[in-house]
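Open question from group meeting: does this chain pack into something compact, or does most of it stay loose? Before anyone orders reagents, we agreed to write out a predicted structure and look at it together. Recording both the input and the output here so the notebook holds the full record.
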Amino acid sequence: MKRKRPVRPKRPYIATPDQVRITRNAHGAVIDYAEENVSSVRLRISTGDVATMTDEEVLAVHNQCIGAQEASAAAFEWVAVEVPPGTPQVKRDRRSGRLVPRGDVLRCHITDGSEVEGDPVAIYIDDQEYTLREFGEVLSMYAGWGMRVAFVPDDEVYEEPAIEVRKPKRGR
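C-alpha cells returned:
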C-alpha cells in the first residue's frame, strides 16, 4: 500500500473572523484557520494584554503582522550568492554540528551509486560525496524557502543555463 505524502501547508493570510479560531495561551494567542492545510500562527502578545483583548483585536494584530510580512516580501530583492569556484561550498557549523551551505547556489554532480548501501544516488559537492540524507541536511538550512533545480551537463555546473518555459517533449 502506497503511503500518502503530506501536502505542503499553505501560508497564513489576512483573515476575517469567520476564517479563523483564536485561542489564548501563556505566551499570547494561536490563530488556527478554518481552511484545511493552512499553517497556524502563534502570535506573541503580552499575557496581560491578550487577556483583555477581544478576538477581533487579536485578529487585527495578526492581520497587521501578515500585512507587514507581505509588504516586506514585496520590497525584498533576492540576489543569490554563489561562492567562487575553488572555495568550499559546504561547511560543518561549529555550534550545531550540521552541514550547511556557505552560499545560496550549490554546484553538484550526481552519480547513480553511493558508497552507502541502499542509497540509489550520491551527490558530489566539491568532489566530496554526500548521501541523500547528508544532502538533505545541507538543504535543511533553507527550510521554508523555495528551490529551483536546473540539470546541466556535468562540465557546465559553473555556467548559468538558458531556461525555456514550455511543455517537455514526448517521452519525458
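Observations to bring back to the group:
The chain is about 20% helix and 20% strand.
Residues 22 and 31 are 5 Å apart (CA to CA).
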